[in-house]
Amino acid sequence: MRIIVNHGQMVPIYEQIADQIKTLIRKGELREDDLLPSVRTLSKELKISALTVKKAYDSLENAGFTKTVHGKGSYVAATDTELLLEEQKKEIESDLEKAIRKGRRFGLSDGDIRCLFDLILGEEDA
Asked: Which range of residues forms the domain containing residue 18?
């Protein structure tokens, strides 16, 4: 399982971890009953606090994506990947709406906002 933490992002590290695990589940790279790395193992691998990993695992469990068996570890729970994809899309829509409102507050036209969006999308392809 490959998790990448970006310390420069405004997104908390535990959310980055949880989001990436959700994506791995949605893509089928993590399946039901797959064992996640232990909190200590992942914290050492990512060079972050074990408490941060624990917080990510707790949020995944609270949302129903994982289940923890005391003394054995955290496992991927049965998940509806289509529902997960829809939840992720709704979150992206919300973020895009916020960005559009902010752009308009700053006086940008819808055309300017589209140009910025296309520019950013182009950067991802490079």
From this structure: 13-76
pTM: 0.69
- Taking a C-beta distance cutoff of 8 angstroms, is the pair 49, 115 a contact? no
pLDDT in single tens digits along all 126 residues of the chain: 899 999 888 899 999 999 999 999 988 899 999 999 999 999 999 999 999 999 999 999 998 899 999 889 999 998 777 777 888 888 899 999 999 999 999 999 999 999 999 998 887 655
In terms of domains, do 86 and 101 share one? yes
Does residue 101 sit in the same domain as residue 70?
no
Looking at residue 35, the DSSP 8-state letter turns out to be B
Euclidean distance between CA atoms 55 and 34, whole angstroms: 19
